[in-house]
Amino acid sequence: MAAPKKGRRPAGGQGRPGRALALILIAMVALTGGMFWSGHTTPRLGIDLAGGTSITLKAEAEPGKEDAVNETNMNTAVGIIERRVNGLGVSEAEVQTQGRENIIVNIPKGVDEKQAREQVGTTAQLYFRPVLTYAPSEQPAPTASSSASPAPSASGATADKGKDDGKKDEKTATPSASASTQGRAVSEALKAPSPTPTPTGSASGGPKASESPKGSPSPDAATSALEQKFATLNCLDPKQRSAANKNAKPADTIVACGKNAIGQWEKYILGPAEVDGKDVDDAQGVFDQQRGMWIVNMEFTSSGSKKFQKITSKLSTQQEPQNQFAIVLDGEVVSAPSVRTTLSANAEISGSFTQKSAQDLGNILSYGALPLSFDTQSVTTVTAALGGEQLEAGLIAGAIGLALVIIYLVVYYRGLSLVALLSLLASAILTYVIMALLGPAIGFALNLPAVCGAIVAIGITADSFIVYFERIRDEIREGRSLRPAVERAWPRARRTILVSDFVSFLAAAVLFLVTVGKVQGFAFTLGLTTLLDVVVVFLFTKPVMTLLARTKFFGEGHAWSGLDPKRLGAKPPLRRSRRVSAPIDPKEA
After folding, report:
1. Which of 57, 110, 147, 565 could form a disulfide bond with 374, CB atoms 3.0-4.6 angstroms apart?
2. Of 142-146, 419-423, 438-442, which range is least confident?
3. 416-442 and 17-38 helices cross at what angle (nearest 10)?
4. Strand partners, 294
5. Residues 6 or more apart whose Cβ sits within 8 Å of residue 125
6. How many CA atoms lie less than 13 Å away from 80 in the CB half-sphere?
7. DSSP states along 446-463
């Protein structure tokens, strides 16, 4: 019989188990070190365990569009609000409808309440409207120095970067703050014909009232009302600001308020909307190194680019202030830049932005406008008292389940239970550390269903050990000694473990994709612990069994090892060692 080749390993064998153990130990040390280095040594808790903020929003339809508050629009609003809140780094926020017209938003503790309210309640209706005229909202005395107001482009020099914000031509000076002068400016702007390169022409063509013959003796009722509204509008009053253009349609000529670069309120008359937020493909807040300020960059869709090119082409031929377009967000002017050249691909919003405000606005514009307007009905702080009691009950149940598993392993597997307990400990350490790191990394928050998923994972992990142990015992029952039994049992057990874990992970993935809210926490934790089960069994349990098979206690089948051949009913003769027949002495023969 030919001797086996040197270095050849049995099928399924593992010649160097120390390498696998060293690999998983290094990974555990590195992850633990990263956890302490990040300063987040505990998993982030969800609203049911740590408390948080609960916001109730009520949908409001425009007059004559009461049917807009329907299931489709409400579900769309839920999706948009959820994406906005997730944009803040909160993955455990709960957004759901309540009744026909209410939406409940639950945000875990640790999120800025004011920022969250702005994100969930902002409708984000974005329009680009041509500026017909504007004036400072403050009412200074009618002196020569107060006859001109600051240029609105100072609040957002977006389309014309070469403009000198500090110099203004006298022809482009805005009307005086006096009501009579403002009224004359309004009349001239509204009576101007459709877009022609005249100082008083509306870049958008103006409202229908502009089609009346030039020099008409008196404006129509709508123009007169708009003049009066513009003259009396006080942008310093929050109520007047919010009511200035409430329920206005995109095709309407409106009055609106906005702040300039130095924080002063200005009031505008704006023409019909030429471009809206649906034409924006992407937006994000970035820092402009050249100007040293935060801005919001916007990229348009293909149709939006054509619209933007059309309006900027018209405006570039006008003079101040009709060469400006106002970027209106939820009825308020956030920027009013001037246009000197035709633009099409993108635009930017600049002004008195901080990093937070620029990124928040980019987040809102990226995820789209809400199909409905919402009024904040209530903002309440949710305590963790009830969740704490439920967590305590869940942990007690988990501890009882773990104790029963340990008792079963010790009674049935005896010494092998040590391998199972060490593997469970390794899995628990990896699970805890990874959950702690995922909190600041992706906003993962541990809620009650996630805790349930971790408890269920105890059974999945223990099941993998039992499959392997039983395969080893089957080999011993066939008469093999422990060392070959460990190696021959591994390929069969490995296939069973992989199939079982694949089914569990697939179920967790499907559950995560088709559900929302807390159930996703359960699915995520179940999927994570299933993957860790594979890692622990391959890199810890199997190498440890290979090493223990070389010891006398397990290798010789001690009664308390759990691998005693007699107790297992092994078939004789036992193949623990081969007896070498003594050579026959020729003399005796």
Report:
1. 57
2. 142-146
3. 40
4. 287
5. 276, 277, 329, 330, 331, 369
6. 25
7. B-HHHHHHHHHHHHHHHH
Structure tokens at 512: 């995560």
Q: Which residues pair with 55 in a beta bridge?
A: 105, 379
Three-state SS letters, 78-123: HHHHHHHHHCCCCCCCEEEEECCCEEEEEEECCCCHHHHHHHHHCC
446: which strand partners?
A: 45
DSSP 164: -
The whole-angstrom separation of Cα 489 and Cα 472 is 5
User: Greatest CA span in the chain, whole angstroms?
Assistant: 146
User: Per residue in 471-482, pLDDT tens?
Assistant: 998 888 888 888
Q: Which residues contact 237 (CB under 8 A, 6 or more apart)?
A: none
- Spacing of C-alpha 458 from chain mean position: 30
Number of H helices and E strands in the chain, helices first, is 17, 13
Nearest to 422 by CA among 435, 409, 432, 433: 409
- DSSP lists the bridge partners of residue 520 as none
Contact 455, 396 (CB under 8 A): no
pLDDT tens sequence across 332-371:
888 787 777 777 767 777 766 788 778 777 776 776 666 6
Q: Which residues contact 519 (CB under 8 A, 6 or more apart)?
A: 449, 511
